[in-house]
Amino acid sequence: MSIRVVIADDQAIARQGLRMILGRADDIEVVGEATDGLDALGQVERRRPDVLLMDIRMPRMDGLEATRRLRDTEGVAVIVVTTFDLDEYVVEALRAGAVGFLVKDSPPERIIDAVRVVARGEALISPEVTRRLLDQFVAAAPARAGDPALADLTPRERDVLLGIAAGRSNADIAAHLHLEESTVKSHVGRMLAKLGLTSRVQAVIFAYETGLIAPGSARH
User: What's the predicted TM-score (pTM) here?
Assistant: First the structure.
């Protein structure tokens, strides 16, 4: 079955470019376009996409507010599409429930791969720009050292959280900890539930904000 995608951007040329790129993939189908956040909410309700590519600055309702409103909508994964001059919004978008983000001039193959990754239920945290932005903006966020939720984690769940914060996939974490990948997936689910988080990207932010990882230290 094809991955159903809606593109939300107020610039027609940006929507057209993304549609052309995604059209190269046999397993991806663009089922709708939106010109602002409010339109995006309607498109999600009508089209039931698997993935929503969301611009940030749009009229009527911006991408941040639209992402917040979609946070509890099952079945749709939001990828925020940004430009370097809008970087200050990225972490806020991830807190709002986005599962990742792309830079608008990303290579076509990265955009296609991103859609596939989030459609599988994973988060887009590996590109180098993601790490750089998290380093920059989480470093400026208020620290939450000693968050009591950390005490609820088992040592293995804490190890998994550190692996995610370092940008590792489940397979990489499994190899590093000498575990089965299915076991790591179970640990990830329990860890997210205990911390009240909804995605791996939010787990990365949590790890930075609580001081588990220092900005600039987490690398592949």
Answer: 0.68
